[in-house]
What does this fold into?
Amino acid sequence: MQPINFDEILDKIVEKNPQYHLEAYLFLREGLDFAQKKIGKSNKHEIRHITGKELLAGLREYGISAYGPMTVTVLEEWGVTRCEDFGEMVFQMVEHGLLSKTERDSREDFKDGYLFDDAFRKPFLPSGKAKLVESRSTQPKTS
It folds into this structure.
């Protein structure tokens, strides 16, 4: 049995699913490692399976640390505009043997995770502007 070549398989995934850039999958993998290490610190350095919500939190923190307020722009350039995109990418990687899942894991775990502007841009706004953005996002939309 041949060992899995991560890069070759990612190339095949991107070729089959070009809506997400190769860099998005690499970001996802790095964010997963980041989340596992963070959770491992609180669990006596045990690496364990993490949930979709835990992964989203890790991706948020990793994105902010790597790209700051440009995270949304970078992710959009790579075809990722919402949490569901991360879920789709995770399950593409699962289907190709790059990641594993449990019976309880599903794409639904990534639904309604967070709005990208709230998660990645809002932390960098001055407090007055953050409140203005928050009030706009909670107001009903008018036609």
About this structure: The mean pLDDT is 87. The CA atoms of residues 72 and 120 lie 6 Å apart. The two ends are 59 Å apart (CA to CA). The longest helix spans residues 22-42.
